[in-house]
Amino acid sequence: MGAVDYLAINRANWDERAPAHAASADYGFDRFRADPAHLSDAVRFDRARLGDLTGVRGVHLQCHIGTDTLSLARLGARMSGLDFSPESLRQARSLAGDLVDFHESDVYAALDVLEPGGYDLVYTGLGALCWLPSITRWAGVVAGLLRPGGRLFLREAHPMLWAFDEQADPLALRYSYFEHAEPLVLDEFGTYVATDVEFTHGRTHTWNHGLGEIITALLDVGLRLTGLVEHDSVPWNALHGQMTESPNGEWRLTEHPEALAASYTLQAVLD
Length: 271
Ligand SMILES: C[S@@+](CC[C@H](N)C(=O)[O-])C[C@H]1O[C@@H](n2cnc3c(N)ncnc32)[C@H](O)[C@@H]1O
Known about the structure:
The chain is an alpha/beta fold. It is built from 10 helices and 12 strands.
């Protein structure tokens, strides 16, 4: 399966879901429009770790429909967003207007459309790295975008979470924790927000990357790890029948939530 095939298959999946996501209560476009200070749950979750973003030049890789990107802009950053899904970017532009400039590109080609060494902040949010076959190539892009002293801010689902069969009850490990050469090919016709829309593009090609592989890839391209916090929660119902939602929109295991690191926030600086 060549590179073009996985990109086309995954793009069709995201293009179909983007309008349904933008219309969903979970992404809350209405709340963003009603309140100019409203922030996404993901950005609010990491608000203290993000620190002062005033005047920071940032780029959000795999920005989807722009809710986290706009939230970072509302905190004072001068944001760009990048995604390979034109339908996602159409929704993002309708939400963020002129506050963010959006670019359509595969992550691996980001240096062709964004200024190399031009950014103080590279932000990547939940459910992004699993769409990329090689974490080493991704780390090279991150390093290429940052100016010396610039910071990577990554909040992601934990690779341990991706190793579980999300439908199994009781919990069962099923998928690779480590990066694998061949994609995991699944057909799932739903999505992670509540919607009545029936999707026709269900196929996805994804890859897992172990936490050690992610950190090693970043160290190898000259980034210095400055923070790694593992969380017992993730902002969607990732293990069906096994998780309970908290008031802040985060889901954790109903039984023994302390047993699973479900997501993490990683920060690293380019020396
Ligand atoms: C789960 S979403 C990111 C979600 C984001 N954290 C949010 O909640 O809005 C993943 C995004 O990655 C994008 N994507 C997947 N593969 C990509 C690639 N190779 N290059 C650029 N964007 C990609 C998809 O279009 C989608 O918008």
